[in-house]
Specification:
The structure holds three protein chains of three kinds. Chain A is an alpha/beta fold. Chain A contains six helices and 13 strands. Chain B has nine helices and 18 strands. The chains are: A alpha/beta, B alpha/beta, C alpha+beta.
C-alpha cells in the first residue's frame, strides 16, 4: 500500500505567542517548532498500518518553511520511509495547503491507498485540510477519527462527534483519515531511528512545482492581536440565606451567557 | 445586497441555537435557511422569529443519515442554482466535517471557527481565535463564491429582540450521489465519567466537605452537568476521597473548561493542578480564601447550601 | 573554528531524550524515590529506544554515538530522574572497560548481547576499605591452572542485584599497587558470589546499590581484559570517558532544579507580587542559571576533546568537580526558592537536593577531581 501522511510544523504548545510588528502574523523568530501533535497520531497509525500490510511504504508530506524540518525528520525517525517538503510559508491557508499536498502526492508518482492527517493543526485551528484534500482528490474522508481497524483498504473508522457519541464508518478503497487524540499512542523516535533518518530520501519541491500560485489564496488574515486580558473575577455574597437563590441563579446564568461553558 | 444562506441542524425538536445566533447577527440581510431533512413546527417558528426568509428543506435519496459525501453532494446541487454569496453554518461536529468538503467543491474559501463577524455592505469580515486562543485575527475570504463561514457556537449570543423574517418553508429535492464512506452504526456517548484529566467540567470538594458521604451532593451536580468529581489534597488526606480523585501538584493536573471548587481554600499545590482551567468557580465560606484570587466567579457562602441550589439551577438550564 | 551548535541529529537526540525524561521518568520519579523500587520497566523502555549503553561502538551493534552524543543523553535522562539515570549510566560505566580494554572477541561476546536484549551490568571497583584510594584494592585475582580465582569484597555496587555481567577490578598482589591491578569480566551467577541486601541511601533510592562478596570465584582466563596488570591503565582511560558522562548527569539534575524554581517563582506570590519580582530571588535564579550553563560548557568540551582524540583528563575533572558541586549548590538554592514547600515532599526539589549530593561523591569525589587537576597542572608546568 502507498500510505501518505500529511504533517505540519507548528509552534510548541508552550510557546508564548505574540503578534508581529504589523499584525500580519505572529513573531516567529524565536519559536521552537514541533510536529503538530495530532499529526503524531496520523504518523503512528500509518506505521501501524504499514506493519500490518506487508510491502507498504509511508511517505510524509509537509507544506511549510525549509529552514526547520523538525516535523519531517521526526516522522522519518519514527519510521516513515520518505519525505516530501513543499517549500513555502508556514501559514498558507487551508485551500492552498491542500492543493499543494495534492500536487506533491501526484508528483511522487504513487497512487495513494490511504492518506492520514491530524484532525487539525494547533496553529490556525481550521480543521479543513483533510476534507478539502479529499474532495480535491475525489476521495471520501472521515474526520476526528478515534478508532481505526481493518486490513488493507477495507477499514472501519470511528469518528467522535458531540457528546462523546461515535459514528462508525465502513470504507473500502482509498480514503483520507483525519486522526484525533485517543486513536493510538505515538511511538518515540528511537535513537537508531534518528540516526537512520538522515539517510532517508527527502524531496523538496516549490509551490510552482506542485501547481500552486497566489491565485489559489482563499483566506486573508490581518490584525493579529492578543486577546483581551481576562477580567478580574467577580465575587458574589451568598452568606445571607435569603439572597442565595438569586445569587446562585445569576452565577449559573453568567456561566452560560458570559463564560459560555455550560 | 449579498445573498446569504445559513445551513441549520436540528437537535430533537429544535434547531441548534447557533443557527439562531447567526441569523440574529445577520439581521437586516435577506437570509435563506437550508436544512437537510425535516424541521419541526417549533423549529420553523424559531427560524422565522430570528429572521429566516425562505427555509429550504432538502430531502432525497441517501439523505436520511449524515455522510460527508452525501450531504455535500446534495448541498452542492442546491447551492449551485441559488447564486449565494455566503453560506454560514455552526462550527459543530457536522459543520466542521461537512463545510470544508463543500467549500472545496466550489473551489471556494472557508473561514473556520469565527467568533464574531460583520457584514460591511456585501463584504464579510470576521474575527477568529488562532493558536488555541492565544491570538485573535481578522479573517476575510477571497476568490470564487460562495464564501463559506463556520461560527463557533455560543460565541455570538442570541439577540434580545430579534427581527423576524418570512419563514416560508420550501421543500426541495436533491440526492446524495455516490457515498463511499457511510455510517454503519452510531454508538451513543459513553455514560461513564471521563477521567479527571480528560473531563471538560470538574466539580471538586475540599476539606470543608467534612466527610466522604457528603461528596454525594457533588456527584448530583456532576450528573446534571456531565462533570467528573475531584478532590483537594486536604480532602484526600482526611480520607473523604481516594487519591485517584486528587487534583493538584501530587495529584492530577487538569485543564477543563469549567472547574467548580467547593470548600477548597486554594493552597498553592492545588492551584498548580487546576490553574489552567478556562473558567473557575469557587464556593467558600471564607471571603479571603486564596482560591478567590483565581476564581472567575466566586461565591462566598456555605457549600452545603449553595451547591444544591446550583444543581437545581443547572437542571433548569439544561432541562 | 569555534562552534557552539549541536548538529541536527544532536538536536533531535536531545529533543527525544528530553521528551522521554519528561513523559516517562519525571512523572514517576517521586514514586520510585518513595518506594526505592528498581525501575526495570522504565530502563527497559529506555533501552528499546536506544538510550542505554550509548558507549557500545557501531561494529558491535551499538548506535555509534560520539561522546558528545552520550553526554547529551545523560543530561536529559538525569533531568528526568538522577536516581534512575544512575542505573542507566552504571551500564556504561561497566561496559566502558570492555570497550577500552577488550579484544575483538571479548567485545563481540560481552557487548553485542547488550544491544540485542535488555541487560544490566555492574562495575565492581570500590571496596569497604578503599574508595578514593582506588589503587589500594585488596580483592585478589589469582591464576589457578586454566582459570582465575577471585576473592574479596566490593562495596556500593550499582545495579548489583539485577546485573547480568560484572566488570571487576582486582589485584594479583596488593603490594604491587597500580601495577598489580587487572580488570576481568564475571558472570554474576558464578558459584561463590554473594550479593548483599540493598543499601538504604539518602538519595538515588531507586538505583540498586549493594555489597558483593567473592569467595573463590572461578573465572575463565579469556575474561581478562588486556593482560594481567593492565587494569590501572584501563581504569584511567575509562575515567576519561565516564567522568564527562557523570558530570552531564549533574547538569541534568541542576537544569531540572532551575526549571522548577523558575516556574515556582513566577507562581508564588509574597508581598502581593510573584516572588520572581523580588531581587533576592532573581539573584538566586541568575546564579543557578549561570552555573548550569558553565557546567554544560565544561562537560561538552571534555566530551568533545575525547571525540577529537585529545587528552581530556584535566577537562573531565574540571567538568566533574564543577558540575557536581554546582548541582549541589543549585539544588540547595532551589529548596530555598521554594521555602517551606521546598522542604516538603509535596514538591520535587527536596529529592533533587538529596540526589545531587551523591554526584559529588561517586566516580571520584570533588576532592579527588581537584587532586587530578592539580597533578595535571604541576606535572605539565
Amino acid at each position: 500500500m502507498n500510505i501518505f501522511v500529511c504533517v505540519k510544523q507548528v509552534p510548541d504548545t508552550e510557546t508564548k505567542v505574540t503578534p508581529n510588528g504589523d499584525g500580519s502574523y505572529i513573531e516567529t523568530s524565536s519559536i521552537k517548532w514541533i510536529m503538530n501533535p495530532y499529526d503524531e497520531f496520523a504518523v503512528e497509525q500509518a506505521l501501524l498500518h504499514k506493519a500490518a500490510n506487508a510491502g507498504s511504504t509511508v511517505t510524509v508530506v509537509r507544506v511549510g518553511g525549509a529552514k526547520d524540518t523538525e516535523a519531517l525528520r521526526t516522522a522519518l525517525a519514527m519510521g516513515a520511509d520518505e519525505a516530501i517538503l513543499v517549500d513555502s510559508a508556514d501559514n498558507l491557508d487551508s485551500y492552498m495547503t491542500a492543493k499543494a499536498i495534492k500536487g506533491a502526492i501526484e508528483k511522487s508518482g504513487k497512487t495513494p491507498d490511504l492518506i492520514l492527517a491530524g484532525k487539525q493543526a494547533i496553529d490556525d485551528d481550521c480543521l479543513q485540510v483533510p476534507q478539502v484534500l479529499a474532495q480535491m482528490m475525489e476521495l471520501p474522508s472521515v474526520s476526528v477519527v478515534v478508532g481505526f481497524e481493518g486490513e488493507g483498504s477495507n477499514l472501519t473508522l470511528k469518528r467522535e462527534v458531540e457528546g462523546g457519541a461515535i459514528e462508525v464508518y465502513n470504507v473500502s478503497g482509498p480514503v483520507v483519515v483525519a486522526c484525533n487524540k485517543g486513536l493510538n499512542t505515538p511511538r518515540y523516535a528511537s535513537l537508531p531511528g534518528i540516526m537512520k533518518a538522515k539517510k532517508k530520501p527527502l524531496t523538496t519541491l516549490s509551490l510552482g512545482d506542485v501547481g500552486v500560485s497566489d491565485e489559489d489564496q482563499r483566506i486573508k488574515y490581518s490584525d493579529f492581536q492578543l486577546p483581551p486580558e481576562k477580567p478580574a473575577g467577580k465575587k458574589f455574597d451568598a452568606t445571607d440565606e435569603g439572597a442565595q437563590a438569586s445569587v446562585v441563579a445569576e452565577v449559573v446564568g453568567l456561566l452560560r451567557t458570559e463564560a459560555k461553558v455550560i | 445586497m449579498a445573498k446569504i444562506a445559513v445551513f441549520t441542524e436540528t437537535q430533537g425538536d429544535n434547531v441548534k441555537s447557533v443557527t439562531l445566533e447567526i441569523l440574529g447577527k445577520l439581521a437586516g440581510q435577506t437570509v435563506d435557511v437550508i436544512s437537510v431533512g425535516d424541521i419541526s413546527e417549533a423549529g420553523l417558528g424559531d427560524l422565522a422569529k430570528y429572521g429566516a426568509g425562505n427555509i429550504h428543506v432538502i430531502k432525497g435519496e441517501g439523505l436520511d443519515q449524515y455522510s460527508p459525501e452525501g450531504y455535500s453532494n446534495a448541498l452542492k446541487e442546491f447551492l449551485s442554482s441559488g447564486g449565494y454569496d455566503y453560506v454560514f453554518a455552526g462550527s459543530t461536529s457536522l459543520g466542521k466535517d461537512l463545510f470544508p468538503r463543500l467549500s472545496s467543491m466550489f473551489g471556494a474559501g472557508m473561514a473556520s471557527e469565527v467568533t464574531n463577524f460583520v457584514m460591511d455592505g456585501d463584504n464579510f469580515s470576521g474575527t477568529r481565535p488562532l493558536f488555541a486562543g492565544k491570538c485573535l485575527a481578522k479573517v476575510e475570504v477571497t476568490g470564487p463564491k460562495p464564501h463559506f463561514v463556520t461560527v463557533r457556537p455560543n460565541s455570538l449570543g442570541l439577540p434580545e429582540s430579534p427581527t423576524a423574517g418570512a419563514g416560508t418553508k420550501n421543500d426541495a429535492s436533491s440526492s446524495a450521489g455516490e457515498i463511499r464512506a457511510a455510517i454503519k452504526e452510531i454508538i451513543k456517548g459513553a455514560s461513564e465519567k471521563l477521567d479527571l484529566t480528560e473531563a471538560n467540567i470538574i466539580v471538586s470538594g475540599g476539606r470543608a466537605m467534612k466527610e466522604e458521604a457528603n461528596f454525594k451532593i457533588l456527584d448530583e451536580m456532576a450528573d446534571v452537568i456531565g462533570a467528573t468529581v475531584g478532590a483537594s489534597r486536604a480532602a484526600v488526606d482526611s480520607g473523604y476521597a481516594p487519591h485517584a480523585m486528587q487534583v493538584g501538584q501530587t495529584g492530577k493536573t487538569v485543564s477543563p473548561s469549567l472547574y467548580i471548587a467547593c470548600g477548597i481554600s486554594g493552597a498553592i499545590q492545588h492551584l498548580a493542578g487546576m490553574r489552567t482551567s478556562k473558567v473557575i468557580v469557587a464556593i467558600n465560606t471564607d471571603p479571603d480564601a486564596p482560591i478567590f484570587t483565581k476564581a472567575d466567579y466566586g461565591i462566598v457562602g456555605d457549600l452545603f447550601q449553595v451547591v444544591p441550589i446550583m444543581t437545581e439551577e443547572f437542571k433548569k438550564l439544561l432541562g | 573554528m569555534i562552534n557552539f551548535d549541536y548538529s541536527q541529529e544532536q538536536k533531535e537526540i536531545r529533543e527525544m531524550a528530553m521528551k522521554f525524561a519528561k513523559n516517562e521518568m519525571q512523572p514517576v520519579a517521586s514514586e520510585f524515590d518513595e518506594s526505592g523500587e528498581f525501575p526495570t520497566e522504565i530502563i527497559k523502555k529506555a533501552w528499546e529506544l536506544g538510550l542505554v549503553n550509548t558507549c557500545i561502538p557501531e561494529e558491535y551493534g551499538g548506535t555509534g554515538f560520539t561522546t558528545v552524543d552520550s553526554v547529551i543523553i545523560s543530561e536529559c535522562l538525569s533531568y528526568g530522574c538522577m536516581g534512575m539515570n544512575t542505573g542507566i549510566m552504571a551500564n556504561d560505566l561497566a561496559l566502558l572497560p570492555i570497550v577500552i580494554g577488550g579484544n575483538d572477541e571479548q567485545k563481540k561476546k560481552f557487548l553485542t548481547p547488550f544491544t540485542e536484549e535488555y541487560k544490566i551490568a555492574s562495575f565492581c571497583l570500590t571496596e569497604p576499605g578503599n574508595g578514593s584510594d582506588a589503587a589500594g584494592i585488596k580483592t585478589t585475582i589469582k591464576e589457578d591452572g586454566d582459570h582465575y580465582v577471585v576473592n574479596g569484597q566490593k562495596m556500593w555496587i550499582t545495579n548489583a542485584g539485577f546485573a547480568d555481567l560484572f566488570v571487576l577490578y582486582g589485584t594479583s598482589d596488593p603490594e604491587l599497587k597500580h601495577k598489580g591491578i587487572s580488570a576481568i569480566v564475571i558472570d554474576p551467577k558464578t558459584d561463590g558470589i554473594e550479593i548483599g541486601a540493598p543499601e538504604k541511601k539518602m538519595g538515588h533510592k531507586c538505583s540498586d546499590t549493594r555489597a558483593v562478596t567473592f569467595n573463590n570465584v572461578k573465572v575463565p582466563k579469556e575474561n581478562m581484559l588486556g593482560n594481567p596488570g593492565d587494569g590501572w591503565k584501563i581504569a584511567m582511560k575509562t575515567l576519561d570517558h565516564s567522568r564527562p558522562l557523570v558530570a552531564a548527569s549533574a547538569v541534568g539534575g541542576a537544569q531540572c532544579a532551575l526549571d522548577h524554581s523558575v516556574a515556582y517563582a513566577k507562581e508564588r506570590n509574597q508581598f502581593k507580587v510573584p516572588i520572581s519580582n523580588h531581587q533576592a530571588i532573581q539573584f538566586i535564579i541568575s546564579n543557578m542559571s549561570m552555573k548550569v550553563e558553565a557546567s554544560r560548557l565544561l562537560v561538552t568540551k571534555s566530551a568533545w576533546q575525547l571525540d577529537q582524540g585529545q587528552s581530556n583528563t584535566k577537562m573531565a575533572s574540571y567538568a566533574k568537580a564543577f558540575a557536581a558541586d554546582s548541582c549541589m549548590e543549585i539544588c540547595t538554592d532551589a529548596v530555598q526558592v521554594f521555602g517551606g514547600y521546598g522542604y516538603s515532599k509535596e514538591y520535587p526539589v527536596e529529592k533533587l537536593m538529596r540526589d545531587a549530593k551523591l554526584i559529588q561523591i561517586y566516580e571520584g569525589t570533588s576532592q579527588i577531581q581537584r587532586l587530578v587537576i592539580a597533578k595535571e597542572i604541576f606535572t605539565r608546568s
